[in-house]
TrEMBL record, chains A, B, C:
Reactions listed under catalytic activity: 5-(2-hydroxyethyl)-4-methylthiazole + ATP = 4-methyl-5-(2-phosphooxyethyl)-thiazole + ADP + H(+)
Organism of origin: Intestinibaculum porci
One Pfam family hit: HK
Keyword terms, alphabetized: ATP-binding, Kinase, Magnesium, Metal-binding, Nucleotide-binding, Thiamine biosynthesis, Transferase
Record-given protein name: Hydroxyethylthiazole kinase
Family assignment from sequence similarity: Belongs to the Thz kinase family.
Role noted for this protein: Catalyzes the phosphorylation of the hydroxyl group of 4-methyl-5-beta-hydroxyethylthiazole (THZ).
Length: 273, 273, 273
């Protein structure tokens, strides 16, 4: 199934509308192209309904939000939900400011999202409405480890139940869950946290996977997470001794663009809990 | 003449004002530097007249437009036209929303542009005011092929006549025409469509070429198109087996920065119709 | 001391709030991660006080400013100054428009910055309120050379005295001074000027160095400048014959991410005047 999700993106070329931050937007666009999708970025309220209507998915990322783009997120979100498009929220920096937390919560209240993808601190900020964040990065205390794994699985399943959606909590160990099942994914590398935007890239990728696999949303989100993590491992294997975080970013996107079903099948490391 | 256009950019270092989208802006800046020009980005209406006045060219790209930047585009466009600067419009996503189509058409109505550069779908949306777009990419049906080449050449020449400007329609085959002559350019690779922003990059490059070759605008636009396509071919030749679309983008910009007259002369593939 | 500044960034992981332009923002984020800091970008006035409060440094860069973000810069600047955070101003394009010059001057009037970092033309525009700029690049006439070095050192020390801050004037020769001492730094390469954003990247890096070395601000700013220049030299040494400005950018950021105390100590070239 996991490999089939990859195949479906490459065959269906879903068009993804992204309302996303200006820090990592270029990488998000290139990652979506790399996986077989087509990106379009548009955040003007006057056009977002029309733009999202011609797409199959909407990826809302609240990094570098402002009052103008928040309005566009809300309008686009409602339209995409009405059209049953694949709808993903990346609550970048939730917990770091009231504006971010409140915007994410009000988007979730107004529109049904198929999936919420964030780090531990961001998801805690939304679910528990209390957070200890380190800006846009997870707090050092917020790490999924072997010791707290059971507890974290319960947390994401509960939050998935509460929101009636898929919750993808990414970090050293990635948890992708609905209220019944949780994929515990151990692909990825520590070095990925030294690059800006790996979370944003994964959100773009996940939205594309979801849009091309509407019948299997949980598998689609899990597959996207494995692709990203595995690309991180493959990219690292090609890093020359004089290469650092900037080249690593390129190697990761490259690996996504070259990823095939066989490589994914051989490299995916997960269990279902 | 084609090689001379390249030389003139490297010798004159034109300063180019870009009002462009935030997705590919960094690549546009690096491409302009790569070809020998200097970029400046500014989209605040309070400063665009002043900024454009110190430049030699203005590159307007409507991707990620908003009401604030549309106003800046109009004000800057009028000023640049008044000063007889090289003026290029890239109607990104025309046809994908009314706002984009209308903005492009109203810019064209208010200001004389020296060149319009877009893909087939975008140019059809403007010329025929009916379009079948795939977001910011050309529709699959909108491809210049050996079969429809004559018809497409007539289309671009007619549109160039109607708008009294140069029309550059880029895709698998690139057509760069005024109302008399059409350069049919076959440089480039299929893989270039797997990178975000190759169109935006070409617009930035073309504006720089135009600014440094005001006496030969058609040749300048054709030369820029050949440079971009040839850089795509050279870049591909340096792609390692483990490299994909992200590294390819770097290789293309690299090849533009290393492009010399001899390489361009040897590699340019075109006929004039 | 220089090497200790590097070590302190890597050990303290300062969180840096950046209000910066959308052209080079991704590179700034990756450079800050490369040196050991964490970036957060936020420019909405409703959240900037809260965001900057959780950080240790604020990097304000006025490239692609607009009326909305200028307001955010002012509000964030005051809050960061009140909290005694490391505060840096990069007056991109000062002298190229009245809006940029006036914005930089009014930020300086309202808030005390620890350091102003710009090229010769930008700093002259602010200090002398008369300038000959080439857009966002220094004018060809504005170069620090062996011939005018004494005069330039006096200029930066005087301006540092006037503003009661550190002044970093970067170009072929970099001068980093307070009113008493001037580091004359000769690291760096000519090719760095062929990449967009090396100045912006240095500002991000310098703000991180300052935030992690509050007791030694002048040394911190000098060290950041040496790291950037040395990374330019190291990056160039890894440039393949077919690589140009785009790959060079990656090599530079890579070199920053791999920079260690020993390499910095061996490679730093400066005298104190």
């Amino acid at each position: 199934m996991i490999e089939e999700c990859l195949k479906n993106v490459r065959e269906n070329h879903p068009l993804i509308h992204n309302i996303t931050n200006y820090v990592t937007v270029n990488d998000v666009a290139n990652v979506e192209l790399a996986c077989g999708a087509s990106p379009i970025m548009a955040d003007e309220v006057l056009e977002v309904e029309e733009i999202t209507s011609i797409c199959q998915g909407l990826n809302i990322n609240i990094g570098t939000l402002n009052t103008r783009t928040i309005e566009a997120m809300k309008v686009a979100g409602k339209k995409a939900a009405f059209l049953h498009h694949a709808l993903l929220l990346d609550p970048v920096g939730a917990g770091a400011s009231h504006l971010r937390t409140d915007t994410a919560l009000s988007l979730l209240a107004e529109t049904h999202f198929d999936v919420i993808r964030g780090n531990v601190s961001e998801l805690k900020a939304l679910a528990l409405q209390s957070a200890d964040t380190h800006g846009v990065d997870a707090s050092a205390a917020d790490v999924v480890t072997a010791d707290n794994l059971d507890q974290m699985i319960t947390f994401v399943k509960d939050y998935a139940h509460e929101r009636n959606c898929i919750v993808a909590m990414t970090g050293a160990i990635d948890l992708v869950a609905d209220d019944q099942q949780c994929y515990v994914i151990t692909n990825g590398t520590k070095a990925m946290s030294g690059i800006t935007g790996t979370g944003c890239m994964l959100s773009g990728l996940m939205c594309a996977y979801l849009a091309a696999n509407k019948e299997h949303p949980l598998e689609a989100c899990a597959a996207a997470t494995m692709v990203m993590g595995l690309a991180g491992e493959i990219g690292l294997s090609h890093l020359a001794s004089y290469e650092g975080n900037s080249s690593y970013r390129d190697h990761i996107i490259d690996a996504i663009s070259l990823m095939d079903e066989k490589t994914l099948k051989a490299g995916a490391r997960y269990e279902i809990r």
